[in-house]
From TrEMBL:
<dbReference type="InterPro" id="IPR018289">
    <property type="entry name" value="MULE_transposase_dom"/>
</dbReference>
<protein>
    <recommendedName>
        <fullName>MULE transposase domain-containing protein</fullName>
    </recommendedName>
</protein>
<feature type="domain" description="MULE transposase">
    <location>
        <begin position="26"/>
        <end position="110"/>
    </location>
</feature>
<dbReference type="Pfam" id="PF10551">
    <property type="entry name" value="MULE"/>
</dbReference>
Amino acid sequence: MKRAHSLKTSEEIIFVDSTSSCDAENHAITFMLTPCAAGAVPVGIFITKGQTEECYKQGFNLIMDIMKESACNGKETPTTFITDDSEAEINAMKKIWPSSSNFLCIFHVGQAVWRWLWDSKNGIPNENRRQLMSYFQSILYAESPACAKEAYLNAIGYTGSCIPTYPLWNAYLIQIWNRKELWCLAFRDESVKGHNTNNFSEVAIRIFKDEVLSRVREYNVITF
């Protein structure tokens, strides 16, 4: 991992993701990776007793204490983080690296919207879910901030469709639009280096679960 911090990419972009319920005491493991020619390599991995902001701060501080001035190719602060939508994780990173930018993994953002549409308590009929998801995707993949705003207004006004108005959907869309800089591609620049997901972290966690945790009885009891 120390060699990974000598990579140029470690000062540019880092992917962060966590997995919980790793044992009977619900410890969490957080992976920090940076892209390379082989995919991505870890620049830090730490275990915490939970997924609170304080737990994340302790983990991030531990990584920095170990790496000291050699962290992030000597810069000590990466330009960009890509994470899932964990408020505790993001807040902790802002306090440790206040000058870094944070963007959300668009895969997880889209997944969250799709789950919201399928949640029965939100009252969206099955036949209209795809249309509403299409509205959201037009915002997500807009080519410019102006196009994103136009797509958002079209989504709020149900432009081009004959489906009923859903107040809960409108309220939800307004809520996520207020955080558009975190997930809408129109508000990203070259600092993300073409990376809009943290799927490298997802792969690392999947391998860790399959190759390591699957051999641990405490984990197996929870999983199976």
